[in-house]
Write a structure and sequence with these properties.
This protein is an alpha+beta fold. The protein has an eight-stranded mixed beta sheet, with helices on both faces. Strand 3 and strand 4 form a beta hairpin. Helix 1 crosses helix 3. Bound molecules: coenzyme A. The site of coenzyme A has 21 residues, from strand 5, helix 4, strand 6 and helix 5.
């Protein structure tokens, strides 16, 4: 059974192969990749998008969703469950294509996947680390009830520079 989660104009759904072109178009943006891990490449090609989607479509349970706004694909959101002693936690990750910023889409998507994760993934904690300059993402997390947990100094080495990582979490 396919999963669909929705709130107003915003819907989370499973990925389809046909998302790859638009995913690559929106992801191929340095303003997005600079806030994510190096595993999210720049430039970002359709081949990268196809590889990611193939991997995500095989996941069971589903933990990576396409975000739709008014019926249009606009970005991604995921939960990655921890392993070993961290198996009751998950890390949240997301991006929204630049043309769709500041419409409340990430806020709605984070609320939807948080609720889904706590109900379906046997976890009690969802967390993430935001690079210090990414004030929009920190604002999203605070709006969704995540709590500031501390700063990991110089934890991130990105684009040949060190950055502090600001950690946030929400408990079930
Ligand atoms: C961070 C990101 C997901 C936000 O998505 P979005 O859909 O625009 O977020 P929302 O509209 O729900 O909320 C954005 C909030 O940040 C605020 N904001 C936006 N730019 C800001 C800035 N430069 N400084 C401070 N606040 C900012 C907005 O005003 C809004 O807060 P408000 O509702 O109190 O006014 C999006 O910018 C993005 O994909 N960035 C690149 C990838 C990324 O950073 N991913 C997260 C990694 S931790």
């Amino acid at each position: 059974m396919s999963i669909k989660l929705s709130s107003g104009d915003i819907k989370l759904r499973e990925f389809e192969k046909s998302d790859s072109t638009r995913f690559a178009e929106l992801a191929n943006n340095e303003k997005i990749s600079k806030n994510l891990r190096d595993g999210f490449p720049n430039p970002f090609t359709v081949e990268h998008a196809e590889e990611f989607i193939q991997r995500w479509m095989a996941l069971d349970p589903v933990t990576v969703f396409a975000i739709e706004y008014k019926g249009e694909y606009v970005g991604n959101i995921s939960l990655s469950k921890g392993k070993d002693v961290y198996r009751k936690s998950a890390e949240i990750g997301y991006f929204i294509g630049e043309p769709f910023w500041n419409k409340g889409i990430a806020t709605a998507a984070v609320n939807l996947i948080t609720d889904y994760g706590f109900k379906n993934l046997d976890i009690v904690r969802i967390h993430t680390g935001v690079y210090e300059h990414n004030t929009a993402s920190q604002r999203v997390l605070l709006k969704c009830g995540f709590v500031f947990e501390g700063v990991f100094k110089k934890a991130v080495f990105k684009q040949e520079k060190f950055w502090n990582e600001v950690r946030y979490a929400k408990l079930r």
